[in-house]
Amino acid sequence: MTCLGVIELKELNSDEFIISYSSIPDSAYIKIIWKEFFESRSRGLTLERHFPWLTDKKNVFVSVNYKGAVIGGLVMRQLSKVDVKNNIILNLSLIGLVCIKEEFRGLGLSTLLLENSIEKARKMKIDHLVLWSSKHAVYEKLNFKILDFSQYGQLKNLPKVELLKDEMIVKGYPEELPMPVFATTGGSIHYRTSSVIYTCDHEKYNVISYEGELNDIWKILCTLNSKKLYINVDVRDELYRYLNEKNCQANLEKSNLQMSHCLNTDTQLENIKLSVLDRI
After folding, report:
1. Residue 226 to residue 200: CA distance in whole angstroms
2. Which of 73, 52, 61 is nearest to 25 (CA)?
């Protein structure tokens, strides 16, 4: 690992705990996150399938080391998004896969990782840090705030709709897209100039992406009513309003997972849309 910076963990009165930075993930860290987020939960395909961007050299892997061995870490994925309203580009750093080996938990090492990540982001001129978590209190202590416009829930009582077969194409889940960590399979339906991408299991479909004409997206959704149908939708999208106008029962609730830390007060993350596929 190429060490770009070292900070002693003074809180533990030991110089055997250090923080290091690299653009390449340490093999020990890879094993830790696979065991914690996938193996222990009996799920997962491969890290490459769930996180195809993991080998991008723009990533920053922040690791905590003890006596020369990596015992935990996190990843900072660099992403640029255009704020169309203000005609500027925002530099974002998406934080995820925060994990410490079980025997070292409770020592404040996750907080140490995050504090160092924030300082690293400042030096990199990052505008906003973004992460997804239901453990709000942990991150609020570090000035992260909930900023989530997405809602998730089940769509019920959709009418039966038959699409014109010569205008409909059913495909598998796109290989170039990350497979959400909770899923192992999925598909996509393309109708005219519109499309819907979903994951599925034996009980339900989860719509994670959509684009195109509202009425055609609606028709595609109606063809997925053979199972329970769930959807992630941004309240700023026209589809959100469209669904509310339909007679279907949309049991949508605020996701409240996305949290952000503003490092450049001259920019606003409110104008940026991050999808389910951006989550780590």
Report:
1. 12
2. 61
Please report, as a single letter, which amino acid is at residue 78.
Q
pLDDT digits (tens, 9 = 90+) for 154-195: 999 898 888 888 899 999 999 999 999 999 999 999 999 999
How many beta carbons lie within 10 A of that of residue 269, not counting itself?
21
CB 232 within 8 Å of CB 209: no
Amino acid at position 244, single letter: N
3-state DSSP assignment of residue 50: helix
* Contact between 28 and 69 (Cβ < 8 Å): yes
The answer for residues whose C-beta is within 8 angstroms of residue 27's C-beta and 6 or more apart is none
Q: How many residues does the chain have?
A: 280
Residue whose tokens read 């996305």 = 258
Whether the CA torsion 3, 4, 7, 9 is positive or negative: it is negative
User: Token pair 């104008």 is at which residue?
Assistant: 271
And the tokens for 150?
Answer: 């997405």
Closest to 232 (Cα-Cα) out of 259, 196, 268: 196
d(CA 258, CA 150): 9
d(CA 129, CA 132): 11
pLDDT in tens, 105-133: 999 999 999 999 999 999 999 999 999 99
Cα–Cα separations (whole angstroms), residue 125 to 56, 73, 91, 117: 19, 21, 8, 12
